Amino acid sequence: FKGGDTCEYLLSSGRFLGEKVWQPHSCMMHKYKNSEAKNCLIDKHVVFIGDSRIRQLFYSFIKLINPQVKEEGIKHGNIPFEDKSASIKVDFLWYPEVNGSMRQRIKSWTEGSVAKPHIIVVGAATWSIKIHNGSNEALAQYKINITSIAPLLEKLAISSDVYWVLQDPVYEDMLSESRKMITNEKIDAYNEAAVRILNSSSRNSKAKVKVFSVSKLIAQETIMKSADGLHLPESSRDTNAMILMNVYCNKIMKPIDGSCCQPQPPLTLIQKIAFCFFTLSIFGYLIISLIHRNNYRKNKTCTDLESGEEKKPAISTPNVSTLEMLLHCFCKLGLIMTYFYLCDRANLFMKENKFYTHASFFIPIVYILVLGVFYTENTKETKVLNREQTDEWKGWMQLVILIYHISGASTFLPVYMHIRVLVAAYLFQTGYGHFSYFWIKGDFGVYRLCQVLFRLNFLVVVLCIVMDRPYQFYYFVPLVTVWFMIIYATLAVWPQIVQKKANGNCLWHFGLLLKLICLLICIYFLSYSQGAFEKIFSFWPLSKCFELNGNVYEWWFRWKLDRYVVFHGMLFAFIYLALQKHQMISEGKGDPLFSNRVSNVLLFISIVSFLTYSIWASSCKNKTECNELHPSVSVVQILAFILIRNIPGYVRSVYSSFFAWFGKISLELFICQYHIWLAADTKGILVLIPGYPMFNVLVSTFIFVCVAHEISQITNDLAQIVVPKDNSTLLKRLLCIAGFFSGLHFFSAMQDPLRH
Predict the structure, then answer these.
(1) H helices present in 473-529, as ranges
(2) Are residues 446 and 563 both part of a single domain?
(3) Is 25 a catalytic residue?
(4) Tally of structural domains, the chain
(5) Active site residue 358
(6) Are both 230 and 146 inside the same structural domain?
(7) pTM for the full model?
(8) What is the pLDDT of residues 27-72, one digit of tens each?
(9) Where is the Cas1p 10 TM acyl transferase domain (predicted)?
């Protein structure tokens, strides 16, 4: 952390990721769309003053507002542009030299009641070098002229944004004979003079002219692609225009993935209350710990004065009380949430944009697969999808998803489609696991319901409070929660059909299948009736949970994307448990799941199906079309994987303890990555150690995994306290939780007007 404004970094430093993606130092740059640019610049007047290079920047800038603009203006004259729909005026004023004419134009804006432009972009020098043949006298005159203009620009900078664009280097080998006198040595001398003179008399930070020096760095990398050695290629001009847009608009539009030039958001009322709560928890835990320590010291082994022998105290060390455990959990959680806030809300650590390369995705994938195979152990049981195997499955999928997110691989469609299958596989496990539990145990009690809901939602609720984000922002947890409730409702509603009841009468199996068919019909109806879906989730209080940006469209899209896979998981569990009950499969150690012939045929079909899906996913050309097919076909690869993993007896009887360890904290890993591994709500990458990308990833990953593991333990500990088995105590806790959410809603309603 070097302090200062990230705007300074955006205007002065950065590097290229690949050939075309510019990465400012320490912050993230948003890619503005036309609609966003218009919203930012509505009723604004922007002026570009200078030579042909500034004219290039002018055209790139107005193309961000209207991409249809063509560069057809007078080369050596003024060029106006106006967007009447948004009342935006952008003018280019032809002043190729820093002289009296330029001074007079700038002075006119400082006098009287003339309307001042909101943004002024100035720059010129190459014409002075060219006309005066690079003479020293011309440089001396340039210094005099810029000295006379500087106070006027500083005066304008009090109420307007004023940028002085330093001169880009040239590619001397490509310059025409009439431009040979324009050398990089001369350009450096002119730039040095401008930097030294500008702001030299200004002591007021608000009256500072912003020096746009980043264009020099961009030109150093791209000027060799110039058509004439003097003017930048179009991609470089567009990058400069986008930087200019970020400098001005980020503080107005506040894009999530545009951290440059954004002030730290003020603390909300709910965040302040949360801060006070965690602070009190820390102090409360320290006080109780000190009291217990003093009591322990008093009761320590002491010497009997009469016999001279040591004797043990009559009172033993008391057990840890529920209050102390509760405060201990909140104490740790408070420290962890402070780290979350510092990483992704305070402007303390740097953030950078993602940049995808095949190497950044596939090399880590190969590395973790090798590690996973290395840590192979025997399973405790050899059933299909046993606990170790499902933990392993969750673990390697979660690691692949993490690598997918940090590498920005969503831009590569084949990888995106395969990752969609992994997300679907999580939901498949949700359907399989919860159906199996309810079918075998028949436990539809409130305790089980509350335990699952608490473990799924605790971390997300805390993050919604601390990070000031809506519940739907962490889309996967609402998705899993709603599907769990759907599974619970499907099986718990009358008539309750469980395995014990069905064993007595086979007709109950048909009753359960009828329930599943009804569920499938409901899913099908809601997926093709967006209006009905939105009406259901637009009712209060559901709307408070599932709205994002004022509507539930994002929630409908996420739900629809994997709408059938939970049903597939439930159906698979039903068929598997029926086969197991009738002893139609062999799950002994080392035994194939079916007879050799059947096993070989199924294994062959599974491998072909698995590869066929991968070939189809890799040939996808359009994300929208592939997303439409995905809900119906994703189950093919999931079932193929399950059969490949379970049909051979040896493969079923071993698992990777490395992947299984990560699988046990997969939910925490998925949620925590939003703020302490990635940054800007997953849009960028957190930079704890700038300048060393690999070392930074190692350090941030180590902290991230440790935090996720710790939160998993905290959640488990709190679940035992908050959700007790005793029904009367549980009812009291539920009333307290209802009171908590009512208070949360009340404070949220209080702060909403302030936010707007």
Answers:
(1) 476-492, 499-504, 507-527
(2) yes
(3) no
(4) 4
(5) no
(6) yes
(7) 0.91
(8) 899 999 999 999 999 999 999 999 999 999 999 999 999 999 988 8
(9) 253-734
- Cα atoms in the 13 Å half-sphere on the side-chain side of 82: 3
Cβ-count burial of 525 within 10 angstroms (0-12 exposed, 13-18 middle, 19+ buried)? exposed
Give Cα separations from 226 to 317, 332, 606 (angstroms). 79, 57, 54
Region label for 385, one of left (φ > 0), alpha (ψ between -120 and 50) or beta (otherwise): left
What is the per-residue pLDDT for 207? 60
What CATH number has the domain bearing residue 107?
3.40.50.1110
Residue 146, token pair as written in the block: 């810029």
C-alpha distances in Å from residue 613, one per residue of 531, 564, 607, 620, 638: 32, 17, 10, 11, 10
Last residue of a domain, one of 223, 253, 283: 253
Do 356 and 438 belong to one domain? Answer: no
d(CA 59, CA 79): 10
**HEC states along 174-215?**
HCCHHHCCCCHHHHHHHHHHHHHHCCCCCCCHHHCCEEECHH
In order, the DSSP letters of 394-436 are: HHHHHHHHHHHHHHTGGGSHHHHHHHHHHHHHHHHHHHHHHHH
Q: Which of 635, 638, 651, 643 is nearest to 594 (CA)?
A: 643
Q: At what angle do helices 565-581 and 623-646 cross, to 10 degrees?
A: 20
Say if CB 590 and CB 649 are below 8 A apart. Answer: yes
Domain hosting 734: range is: 726-755
Q: Residue 613 and residue 619: Cα distance in Å, rounded?
A: 10
Quick one: 749 and 680 in the same domain? no
- The active-site residue out of 228, 443, 726, 752 is 228
Listed residues 550, 583, 616: the one ending a domain: 583
294 — pLDDT class (breaks 50, 70, 90): confident
Are 328 and 444 within one domain? no
pLDDT tens-digit series, residues 217-228 = 999 999 999 999
3-state secondary structure of 146: helix
A 10 A CB-CB count for 613 gives: 21
User: Running DSSP on this structure, what letter comes out for residue 467?
Assistant: T
Q: Are residues 111 and 216 in the same domain?
A: yes
Kindly state whether residue 105 falls inside one of the protein's structural domains.
yes
643 assigned to some structural domain: no
231 flagged as catalytic: yes
Q: Please report whether residue 376 resides in a domain.
A: no
Residue 632 maps to a domain: no
User: DSSP of 709-747, one letter per residue?
Assistant: HHHHHHHHHHHHHHS-SSHHHHHHHHHHHHHHHHHHHHH
**447, 338: one domain:** no
For residue 416, what are its two tokens?
């995106």
Given 12, 13, 52, 614, the catalytic residue: 52
628: tokens are: 């439409």
Residue 47 host element (H or E): strand 45-50
Residue 465 and residue 471: Cα distance in Å, rounded? Answer: 10
* Domain shared by 350 and 397, yes or no: yes
Catalytic residue of the set 25, 231, 630, 675: 231
Q: What angle do CA 306, 310, 316 make, to 5 degrees?
A: 120
From residue 356, give the alpha-carbon distance in Å to each of 131, 353, 403, 408, 415: 46, 10, 11, 5, 11
Q: What angle do CA 324, 325, 327 make, to 5 degrees?
A: 65
